[in-house]
Amino acid sequence: MMCSGSSAVALTTAFGHYLRYYTKCDVHWEDGGDYSLAAFPSSLEALQVPTEKKRVVFMAKWRYYQNTCTASYSFAWKNWTQWEADIDWMAINGYNLPLAFTGQELIWQALWRQYGVSDAGLQEYFSGPAFLTWQRMANIRAYGGPLSDSWINQQADLQRHILQRYLELGMVPVMPAFNGVVPAEMQS
Fold first, then answer.
1. How far, CA to CA in Å, does 156 sit from each of 28, 80, 109, 188?
2. Between β-strands 35-38 and 26-29, what pairing exists: parallel, antiparallel or unpaired?
3. How far is CA 125 from CA 135, 146, 161, 184, in A?
4. Does pLDDT of 188 surpass 80?
5. Residue 1 to residues 8, 15, 68: CA-CA distances in angstroms?
6. Is 35 helix (H, G, I), strand (E, B) or coil?
7. How far is Cα of residue 81 from the mean position of the Cα atoms in its chain?
8. How many Cβ atoms sit within 10 Å of the Cβ of residue 1?
9. Which of 62, 103, 126, 136: disulfide with 156, CB 3.0–4.6 Å?
């Protein structure tokens, strides 16, 4: 069996196609958030080898993954091992335009400090990890917070790993933009 593709994510997607349609197994989420190969053949002899070349083309060049809510509700608690598995799952399923929200608070923290916002002002601005979705959509401030510097730094480091993996696979990360809300200390 030979798979080919125009990028690392296309090649991984081709392998995912082979798994689904020739081995009759799939990579899917388990209840604990882990991934599993369902129904993978117990021996290599049981693997079905394609006899003809098959070309799979997606209708759209870009396949977007995630949303603002998922990035906070589910993903705020993931470690690198879980993220790596999720990114591989994205590639196997052909996603090449993933949202990249993790760790943005470090950027905002540094920016707001340049504008003179105090540490107390930052604590009154950032919501806790489970509520970042609502802050990112400009609905709340400081709910369930504050965020510790260690959490902010850990998330920024995690984002560096995430972005590196996206780029290794040829994915184009969708980075967040400014939502227009500033800390109270900056308001006139």
1. 28, 12, 11, 30
2. antiparallel
3. 9, 8, 26, 7
4. no
5. 17, 10, 39
6. strand
7. 12
8. 10
9. 103
Q: What is the token pair recorded at 112?
A: 């707001």
Phi-psi region of 138 (alpha: psi -120 to 50; beta: other; left: phi over 0): left
Number of other residues whose CB lies within 10 A of the CB of residue 52: 4
* C-alpha span between 83 and 64 (Å, rounded): 17
Q: What are phi and psi of 78, to 5 degrees?
A: -80, 145
Q: Which amino acid is located at 56 in the chain? A: V
SS3 97: strand
Tokens of 9: 């994510």
> Can you give the pLDDT at residue 29?
62
